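I'd like us to work through together how a protein chain folds, taking it slowly. To get us started, please write out a protein record for me. Label the sequence line and the structure token line clearly, so we can match residues to local backbone shapes. Once you have written the record down, we can walk along the chain together.
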Amino acid sequence: MSALLDRIDRLAARAPWWAWPAALLALGVASLVTSLVFEPDPDGFTYVFGRRFGSGCAFLELTGVPCPQCGMTRSFVWAARGAFGVAWAHNPAGLALFLWLQAGGVVGLARLVRRDPRALSLPWQLLVGWCAFWGVGLYTVPWILRLLGVHPLP
């Protein structure tokens, strides 16, 4: 793992110090602004400037079962409005990913303000553990429960 991190450090050394923090900040802001542009509706769909977004889930239409992403957009939209319980009900992984993107934006901003590319760094083991928890605990398990009818979409 340290060889991979060394290789990434060598690649990153070619870019200006502010490139990665700026990308983190831009991704956090873009996900927040985009989520705020979408409007949730009681009919279960989201709307953009008064027009319904998407035509439904192709996976659901083809197979009759929800895909792991079902509810992800609505989860982002509700999370951006601070309705974390509703966001969790739509897709726990969506809420976690939205919050992770926002945390990344805060880290990027802190690094740019402090002019320190390593500010608020976390150990790589924590990052790997979080990704594993997100992938299994918040993405796969709720999808399996949804398939079993235990956790249907609102």
